[in-house]
Design goal:
Bound molecules: 4'-deoxy-4'-aminopyridoxal-5'-phosphate
CATH topology of the largest domain: Aspartate Aminotransferase, domain 2
Shape: globular
CATH architecture of the largest domain: 3-Layer(aba) Sandwich
CATH superfamily of the largest domain: Type I PLP-dependent aspartate aminotransferase-like (Major domain)
Strand content: 15-25%
Helix content: 25-40%
Distance between the termini: 37 Å
Strand order of the largest sheet: 4-10-9-8-7-5-6
Mean pLDDT: 97
Structural class: alpha/beta
Low-confidence stretches: 2-7
CATH class of the largest domain: Alpha Beta
Largest sheet: 7 strands, mixed
Radius of gyration: 22 Å
Number of helices: 14
Length: about 425
């Protein structure tokens, strides 16, 4: 994320592109230019093959089986948890709860920790550029507890300043929940400094890492946060799987939020004794194949030259920004000093949706709309943008295709 512009990396993007079979697809007869990575990333062959192999050789339910396949599936599932722990540098696998993704991880904290802890008048502080997944769960729990949702504003560049957070912190703030990277603007938030500030004020910190995990190494110990949520599909893994990191003592004290199989040790009609961490929060049969696929994706990230890949991606974003702002009538939304992966834009006189459709006809996949971040778009007086978002496998040639496609859309629609 912080890759200095002068880094000349030996990173071989052509080699990495070979790892992603879908990049060889044609769309409307044109080579696919995939620039919708903030919505979901593509999957390397190793992830696809891991899923295939799992269903061909291993498939069984986990944890309670005595037969060989069940033991195999359990081992692979728990190995994926260990990989996830290593990826986040979490101290213990007990602190890694598999969830459906970022949204479910945040809802878990809202419905378990917040619902059981917050009282009327307590406050939850979020940033103005949050994704709906880091707004609505808090609105729901505020409705349940009488707590209040407080918002720290971003500036006209889309930056969330420490001073803005500090100005909203009070002795009533019990939790600061903030995105690591904004999916709508690409702004990178100073989450380590925000965490320190919040802790000094006596509040816990949850970081929504959905847009960060594929764009920077994440170290939850260095960040010092209490909770960190992410989705596998944003970091080359399958959909339907993600994880919540939570500090052990917090998770230990939190009540389960869903009841069912696997989260219990014993059950009678009088009551239930809950299982150890992290199983207490994993009711029901989990997405076993997904977790194993996620493990393969995270291994992939930890095996390639990730630092080189990020420097490359940063350079492509920089190149794209320069090319796009040179287009007459195009305005880039979000000009934070530190940005990662995302280039949101509007074009004078053109609806983002029409731009997206025309780009698709030229093989260029971007996303258009509110990006599940309606409040920050209205802060900029917008109801939607077009968004190109980048990953390690994108190239300057992709950017050139984007620029040519935008110019063509302008011609066609003007
Ligand atoms: N937070 C941010 C910043 C996101 O970009 C997203 C996905 N667009 C989410 C949360 C929600 O992720 P998921 O839908 O995978 O739960």
């Amino acid at each position: 994320m912080n890759a200095p512009a002068q880094v000349k990396s030996a990173f071989d993007v052509a080699r990495v592109r070979e790892d992603f079979p879908i990049l060889r697809e044609l769309v409307h007869g044109k080579p696919l230019v995939y620039l919708d990575n903030a919505a979901t990333t593509q999957k390397p062959a190793v992830v696809i093959e891991t899923l295939d192999r799992y269903y061909r050789t291993t498939n069984a339910n986990i944890h309670r089986g005595v037969h060989t396949l069940s033991a195999r599936a359990t081992d692979a599932f728990e190995a994926a948890r260990e990989t996830t722990r290593r990826f986040l540098n979490a101290p213990s696998t007990a602190e890694i709860v598999f969830t459906r993704g970022t949204t479910e991880a945040i809802n878990l904290v809202a419905q378990s920790w917040a619902r059981s802890t917050l009282k009327a008048g307590d406050e939850i502080l979020i940033g103005e550029a949050e994704h709906h997944s880091n707004i609505v769960p808090w609105q729901i729990v505020c409705g349940q507890t009488g707590a209040k949702l407080v918002v720290a504003p971003v500036d006209e560049k889309g930056e969330l300043h420490l001073e803005a957070v500090a100005a909203k912190l009070t002795e009533r703030t019990k939790l600061v929940a903030v995105g690591h990277v904004s999916n709508a603007l690409g702004s990178v938030n100073p989450v380590a400094a925000i965490t320190k500030l919040a802790h000094d004020a006596g509040a816990l910190v949850l970081i929504d890492g959905a847009q960060a995990v594929a764009h920077a190494p994440v170290d939850v110990v260095a960040l010092g946060c209490d909770f960190y949520a992410f989705s596998g599909h944003k970091v080359f893994g399958p959909t339907g799987i993600g994880a919540l990191y939570g500090r052990r003592e917090l998770l230990e004290a939190m009540p389960p939020w869903q009841g069912g199989g696997d989260m219990i040790r014993t059950v009678s009609f009088e009551g239930a004794e809950y299982n150890d961490l992290p199983y207490k929060f994993e009711a029901g049969t989990p997405h076993i194949a997904g977790a194993i696929g996620l493990g393969a994706a995270l291994e992939y990230v930890m095996t390639i030259d990730f630092a080189g890949a990020l420097a490359h991606e940063h350079e492509v974003l920089h190149y794209a920004t320069g090319k796009m702002i040179a287009i007459e009538g195009l305005r880039v939304i979000g000009a934070a000093r530190e940005k990662s992966g995302v280039l949101s834009f509007v074009i004078e006189g053109l609806h983002p949706h029409d731009v997206g459709m025309l780009l698709d006809h030229q093989g260029v996949a971007i996303r258009t709309g509110h990006h599940c971040a309606m409040p920050v778009l209205s802060r900029f007086g917008l109801s939607g943008t077009a968004r190109a978002s980048f990953s390690i496998y994108n190239t300057r040639e992709d950017v050139d295709c984007l620029v040519a496609a935008v110019r063509k859309a302008q011609q066609l629609l003007s």
